[in-house]
Write a structure and sequence with these properties.
Blueprint: H1 2-34, H2 38-51, H3 56-68, H4 72-85, H5 90-102, H6 106-120, H7 128-140, H8 146-159, H9 164-176, H10 180-193, H11 198-210, H12 214-227, H13 232-244, H14 250-263, H15 272-280, H16 284-298, H17 304-317, H18 320-333, H19 341-355, H20 358-371, H21 375-391, H22 395-407, H23 416-426, H24 430-443, H25 448-461, H26 470-485, H27 493-510, H28 514-527, H29 532-541
Helix pairs in contact: 1-2, 1-3, 2-3, 3-4, 3-5, 4-5, 5-6, 5-7, 7-8, 7-9, 8-9, 9-10, 9-11, 10-11, 11-12, 12-13, 13-14, 15-16, 16-17, 17-18, 18-19, 19-20, 20-21, 21-22, 22-23, 23-24, 24-25, 25-26, 26-27, 27-28, 28-29
């Protein structure tokens, strides 16, 4: 009996030892995953599954490693194959729901989540690991529902108040729901349960990143690497902080880049940090050579950001043509979430310089603004578009960009129609100019410029001075200009003299009314008594027996420099940057 008892004890101890090794290996893989050592995580889980294909925890986490590596197809195939043999495996159902959520199949995903929870529910309620998986899926997937994640993770936390992973995911759910304060509290709870969980500390730091609280951000990141010196994501963020701060600390940035490379998985794309440092130093040859080295080593696995950096480096070096192939490669490989507003502007500028396609540039600025959820940044982008076309002297595109800019303003500026109309006028689109000048007159009926330029726009549409409604619009606009100009004969002399000439020509040539022509010439001479054109016209009309004759300046466009001095249009400058973490 003693021998049997001893044998049973040894056997039980052995089983417990094996179980402990499996659990340890599983946690090792999860730690790799949280430290973004995805290949190492995958290899760990693959070994566990190879040893025991029925280890459903390992199968679930292997699928999660595939998802982290953006290989959703492999995750789908793995979960689908496992469900064929284990149709009622709740954890794998939750994993499949995760895949469906990534694919945008929200209804199917929710059904799978609820089925998984129901299948795992016993006398003590739903299984914590299943609730945790459901919460994790809704945090990770773009289409995930953070409120649903919070609901399920709260239940899991109540059932297992010592599960640090649950609190980590709950913190992420709060962060996705934009509840930063609650996220910080929850991350702290995860850290108190497992003080070595660098991921929770790191995620807490990212809350302060979004708040631009750089002191707390860096302090907490340094705490993360103090509890886990191999936690590469924290070094990555510290690198960028020192690279992008003003002024940049290149020495500190390089130090953190070295630590990141030493603790991240071996990957030729780790050299991207070197390439970015070169770019920040404006060493474009170094940037290009380093980035091309990444492409040659990584091949088709090269991340889109490398091509973007190459495009920026070529453009900033002055070789727009050289940057075209790389901006094309970036857009062909990048996902929608990888593209930022400045990337569209970069593409537009490259195409504008190489193909002279102003429509591409216009569409790029508009797309960039549409993507930007920050109002001030959106307005800066649109102003950059206005300035671009203004400097290029493409008045029509400048005006059309001004229309987009005005439509996106929280509070419309009543003077916007004038500046937009003036650009259309200078670009010879007189119909749209006329409409906008009339709109401006409604807000500023006593502003000379709206009446004067509206009359000029109608004059440009009817140089014969005889077609309605242009003729009436000209007469009304020029007469109103003279009336308003009388309040400041020095400031408005140019517009008043021009108006008097055009009115005299209309009444002399079209209306056959010499007296009215003389009257308007005399009004012009009140502003400029020695004006030779006015005096000559007046002499011809006042000759004994003089007949109406076409005289005076030929109607045409005024010089572009004739602009209102009382109305100012602000210009916003914003420098593009290729420095991006994504």
């Amino acid at each position: 009996m003693k021998i049997m008892k001893t044998t049973v004890t040894i056997l039980l101890a052995g089983l417990l030892s094996v179980a402990g090794i499996k659990a340890q290996n599983l946690q090792e893989g999860i730690n790799h995953l949280y430290a973004e050592r995805n290949k190492s995580a995958k290899e760990t889980f693959e070994k566990l599954v190879a040893t025991n294909p029925n280890n459903l925890d390992a199968v679930y986490w292997l699928g999660q490693s595939y998802i982290a590596m953006e290989n959703v197809k492999s995750a789908r195939d793995l979960y689908s194959k496992t469900l064929q043999a284990n149709g009622n495996a709740p954890l794998i159902l939750a994993g499949m729901g995760h895949v469906n959520l990534i694919d945008g199949k929200k209804d199917e995903a929710r059904q799978m989540f609820e089925t998984a929870i129901n299948l795992s529910t016993g006398k003590k309620g739903a299984d914590v690991s299943v609730l945790n998986a459901v919460g994790r899926a809704n945090v990770d997937a773009k289409e995930g529902d953070p409120a649903y994640a919070i609901e399920k993770l709260k239940i899991a936390a109540q059932k297992d108040s010592k599960n640090a992973d649950v609190f980590l995911n709950l913190g992420d759910a709060y962060r996705k729901a934009h509840e930063g304060g609650q996220a910080v509290v929850t991350y702290d709870m995860a850290s108190s349960i497992n003080p070595s969980l660098a991921r929770a500390i790191y995620r807490k730091a990212m809350i302060y990143y979004t708040q631009k609280n750089w002191e707390l951000f860096t302090d907490i990141l340094n705490k993360a690497v103090s509890v886990d010196p191999k936690f590469a994501p924290a070094y990555y963020e510290l690198y960028y902080y020192n690279l992008l701060r003003l002024p940049p600390d290149f020495s500190a940035a390089q130090n953190y880049a070295t630590k990141f490379t030493a603790n991240a998985e071996p990957d030729p794309q780790n050299d991207y940090l070197v390439a970015q440092t070169c770019y920040a130093k404006k060493d474009y040859d170094c940037t290009i050579n380093t980035a091309k080295g990444i492409v040659s080593k990584a091949g088709e696995q090269t991340k889109p950001r490398v091509y973007r950096l190459l495009a920026y480096a070529y453009v900033d070096k002055g070789d727009t043509t050289g940057g075209k192939q790389y901006v094309d490669q970036f857009f062909s490989k990048a996902k929608e979430e990888d593209v930022n507003p400045k990337d569209y502007i970069l593409r537009g500028q490259i195409y504008g310089a190489t193909t002279h396609d102003d429509k591409m540039i216009f569409d790029s600025y508009v797309k960039a603004a549409q993507m930007d959820s920050v109002y001030d940044s959106k307005m800066k982008t649109l102003q950059e578009g206005v300035d671009y076309f203004k400097n290029k002297n493409n008045k029509i595109k400048e005006a059309e960009m001004r229309l987009v800019q005005s439509a996106n303003k929280k509070t419309p500026n009543p003077s916007d129609p004038f500046f937009t109309g003036l650009a259309f006028y200078q670009g010879a689109d007189y119909r749209r100019a006329d409409s906008l000048f009339k709109l401006y007159q409604r807000s500023f009926p006593d502003s000379l410029y709206g009446h004067y330029y509206d009359a000029r726009a109608n004059l440009a549409m009817d140089t014969t001075l005889s077609v309605e409604p242009y003729l009436t619009n000209m007469i009304n606009g020029f007469r109103r200009t003279l009336e308003i100009a009388a309040n400041n004969k020095v400031k408005f002399k140019t517009q008043a003299v021009a108006s008097s000439q055009f009115l005299a020509a209309i009444y002399n040539n079209t209306k056959k009314n010499k007296d009215s022509a003389v009257y308007f010439l005399s009004k012009g001479l009140e502003f400029d008594p020695e004006n030779p054109s006015l005096k000559e016209f007046m002499n011809q009309l006042q000759k004994p027996g003089g007949k109406p004759t076409r005289t005076g300046n030929t109607p045409g466009k005024p010089a572009a420099s004739t602009k209102p001095s009382a109305i100012k249009s602000s210009t916003v400058k914003n420098k593009s940057s290729a420095l991006a973490k994504s």
